[in-house]
Amino acid sequence: xxxxxxxxxxxxxxxxxxxxxxxxxxxxxxxxxxxxxxxxxxxxxxxxxxxxxxxxxxxxxxxxxxxxxxxxxxxxxxxxxxxxxxxxxxxxxxxxxxxxxxxxxxxxxxxxxxxxxxxxxxxxxxxxxxxxxxxxxxxxxxxxxxxxxxxxxxxxxxxxxxxxxxxxxxxxxxxxxxxxxxxxxxxxxxxxxxxxxxxxxxxxxxxxxxxxxxxxxxxxxxxxxxxxxxxxxxxxxxxxxxxxxxxxxxxxxxxxxxxxxxxxxxxxxxxxxxxxxxxxxxxxxxxxxxxxxxxxx
Length: 297
Description:
Elements: E1 2-6, H1 11-22, E2 26-31, H2 34-42, E3 46-49, H3 55-63, E4 67-70, H4 80-98, E5 104-110, H5 136-147, E6 151-157, E7 159-161, H6 168-179, E8 182-185, E9 191-196, H7 197-210, E10 216-219, E11 222-226, H8 227-238, E12 242-245, H9 250-254, H10 258-261, H11 270-276, H12 285-290
Helix pairs in contact: 1-7, 3-4, 4-5, 6-8
């Protein structure tokens, strides 16, 4: 099976680029840069030069492949709405190239889309087309393609981590370093979910192999880690004090991150594990925070 992989040089995508060959799959990785091409070649992948904003390069990548995993996403959260719309267009282009075939397309979203109500953990089977989270654009695009017969499934991400990167927690660490304090909002009882990057890569592979049209999977190994526990681990790693800040002061302290810092982002992966036999084995988020590379803290 030859797989077209977007975001192939990104944090999650590169882990997938190494996971797929180990399972006997060939990888055609999308990259814009010479450095990215070298990295993919060294990882044993074929290189496809192009860009997610270039529909023709996406169509060309799809043409010679048996399936597609789409992980490319611009993580500039100051332009989140714009970047979600960019992702929608890329999914539409990939799907159009797959239309009329049974070849699978695995797209990427966030577990936040599966939250049935504030304070409740996200679940795989929940989907609200009116969800105010801009990332709903990705899943709406996927659903529209499904209606046209394209074999689309969705992998929703929690905080994906290792000792180098930790999803939004990376920004929490940067903020704590810059402000010399690791903070949480109120009692810090709101919870985030997380998964080691190696487990996330394996989940994408399993989702591709399953080829279950319309399925939604959660990359969630740890369902509910209190934000206070995360902040305390960051404080220990950086050697800075930890303190609670009132909700009214969250925007001043966290900036754009305040939209997430006080929010519950817990999630379940019960159905994912049942459907795919996925069993996370990687280190936990707190362990990775406590083992940041020397000099990063």
